[in-house]
Amino acid sequence: MLSYTGGLVLFAALLHASWNALLHGNRDRFLSMTWMSVAIAAVSTPIVVFLPLPDAAAWPYVIASGLVHIAYNASLVHAYRRGDLAQAYPVARGSSPLLVALGAALFAHELIGPLHALGIAMICGGIIAIALQGGRVSRAGVLAALTTGATIALYTVIDGIGVRLSGGKALAYTAWMFLFYWLMPVLFVARRGLAALWTPLRSTPAAVVSSLGGGLVAVGAYGIVIWAMQSGAMGTVSALRETSVVFAVLIGRLFLGETVTGKRWLACVVVAAGAVCLGL
Known about the structure:
By secondary structure, the chain is mainly alpha-helical. Helices cover 80% and strands 0% of the residues. It contains 15 helices and no strands. It is globular.
């Protein structure tokens, strides 16, 4: 049976798939990601005022993670321009747990037992199988998704180490890191101008509201993961979080009209079995 922490990470996986579906479902994904970032940063700003600061040792990781998250946002938008949710999302998420486990072993000296290693391998393999089923996979789409996966692995390892150096202040660590999301509207305005950011408030308010909602969901999703990495192995937490691809397949099928083949459903079962291995 999954632990309480494992159950929360699975819930975070559902939240994560949901905000990615919101992002993919919006026509202008750069604009959508920008408004998501505004919501994330706006929620985090008052939090840092009332919480004690993370310990000094964590600050280099806060800064590094914040900057890598901005690179991740840009890479994710690019990946979704190259492929549908059921392809780009699994490749991006499926390529990261093994990289996270490797990074955790190298930089945090984490060891993973045979059963958990099997679970990580099953999740990664199942995720990649999900991406490869049911359609032609373009080289550009895979490259964009793999780049996104590399940024996911990088910020996950940074946060896994950083939160452990925060002095038990996971919420403060997360909030300060999310303040860097104020850079997204700055980048958007620099590229498209201020009018392109504000005009949708009048022309397509529903899209802006859905993006803001997606940002709030993203705060909860990754906040849970950072909290879990205080005591849980980074590779295990990362792999369990990436079961979100199963939720993404379901969301893509039910709400975005994407085709799901029998082989893709079988791959989902493999991912779920890997999650069970991580919970034993």
